[in-house]
Amino acid sequence: MEQRSGCPINAAVELLGDRWSVLVLRDIIFGDRRYFRGLLTGSVEGIASNILADRLVRLVEAGILTRGTAARGQRALYSLTESGIQTLPILYALGDWGLDWRPGDDALRSRQQFMRDAGPAFLDELMDELRVRHLGAPPKQRRGPGAFERLDAAYAAERERTACESVTGTLAGR
Amino acid sequence: MEQRSGCPINAAVELLGDRWSVLVLRDIIFGDRRYFRGLLTGSVEGIASNILADRLVRLVEAGILTRGTAARGQRALYSLTESGIQTLPILYALGDWGLDWRPGDDALRSRQQFMRDAGPAFLDELMDELRVRHLGAPPKQRRGPGAFERLDAAYAAERERTACESVTGTLAGR
DNA sequence: GGTAGCGATTGCGTTCCGCAACCACTATAT
DNA sequence: ATATAGTGGTTGCGGAACGCAATCGCTACC
């Protein structure tokens, strides 16, 4: 990749400035999808397989991901590097903006809302857990459920709630 | 623009996920370039005029910018809306990541370094000044130079320093 | 030896990018 | 009046990237 300028913002845009790279990272980080198939079939936006393959190669080349050694026909585990883990604030900033200024699905928005309410320290907590998952760091001692556990619980609860509402709405609409 | 999903991150990516939109915002915000010509000729990365025109239209349509009423042949002033001002944390997050994980020019990196050192409250200060510049908000009373003034001074000082070094380096290299 | 799952790859049409030239208009100077 | 510089774009075109569907070569399982 030829660099267009030495600006740090441009440097990030050159790598992540397309319609899919960030979404792939999102699914790896928040969805814990670490295999090609999971990323492909679990994609809400419906990424094509060649695009996914291309982005994974580029992210590995950029040092954001590592690919577990796997021969053809075997599952290859993708892991975040430290630089990949530190893209989390970028994802957060994008989602935070989208939450305020773009329409969207309530259930999906609840995850972003939960992070916002939890405050900036929560991001560090998430990144610590990613280091455990992806880099084999020793888990930190804590009481209660982990950060991702709480985040997923909030998302599941909201999905439950909206599902109920959709039913009652259907009933009321009769 | 058709929405691929209701995810807030995706919503932001749909608008800003290309190779130029973020850089245009960067030049408007940090470079205070508010006219077509300034954005075109001042672009470090060398944006083409048709791409710039297209991105300005899209950003205006998305409600991130407003275009001052100007007939053909007259200067049209572009202003940030509140939603445009609030993209600043996204730019910051991108630059912060680029500063750590990508090579770059020292002078351009110094601006990002300054913001990082100044802490998160500095971002709010910058956004307040943008509201004065772009939305006509009343300037806040403060002592000393403004946030952008300090930021530009840091950038100028670093450019001066590296220019000196380049001269001494040239002399030493003879 | 058939089936399912794995990570891709190929072909092909569409869209986007990037470059250069050009346009219509205004303002200013001569 | 005419020339010149400056304004925000527009057009044409070749090449690159994107996006979709189908397919591939491989492994594991039974």
Brief characterization of the structure:
By secondary structure, chain A is mainly alpha-helical. Chain A is 63% helix and 3% strand.
Question: How is this structure best described in words?
Answer:
The structure is a homodimer of 174-residue chains. With 174 residues, chain A is mainly alpha-helical. Helices cover 63% and strands 3% of the residues of chain A. Chain A contains nine helices and two strands; from the N terminus they run ααααββααααα. The first copy, chain A, has helices at 8-16, 21-29, 36-41, 49-61, 82-85, 88-101, 106-118, 120-135, 147-172, and strands at residues 65-67, 78-80. In chain A, strands 1-2 form a two-stranded antiparallel sheet. The interface between A and B is large, with 50 and 50 residues. Chain B binds a DNA duplex (30 and 30 nucleotides) through residues 18-20, 35-37, 40, 46-54, 56, 70-76.
Largest interface, counted by CB within 8 Å of the partner chain's CB: A-B, 50 and 50 residues
Spatial strand arrangement across the major sheet of chain A: 1-2
Question: How widely separated are the two ends of chain A?
Answer: 58 Å
Number of strands of chain A: 2
Give, in order, the helices and strands of chain A.
HHHHEEHHHHH
Structure class of chain A: mainly alpha
The mean pLDDT of chain A is 89
Gyration radius of chain A (Cα, Å) is 18 Å
Q: Provide the low-confidence segments of chain A as ranges.
A: none
What fraction of residues of chain A sit in β-strands? under 5%
Oligomer: homodimer
Question: Into which percent range does the helicity of residues of chain A fall?
Answer: 55-70%
Major β-sheet annotation of chain A: 2 strands, antiparallel
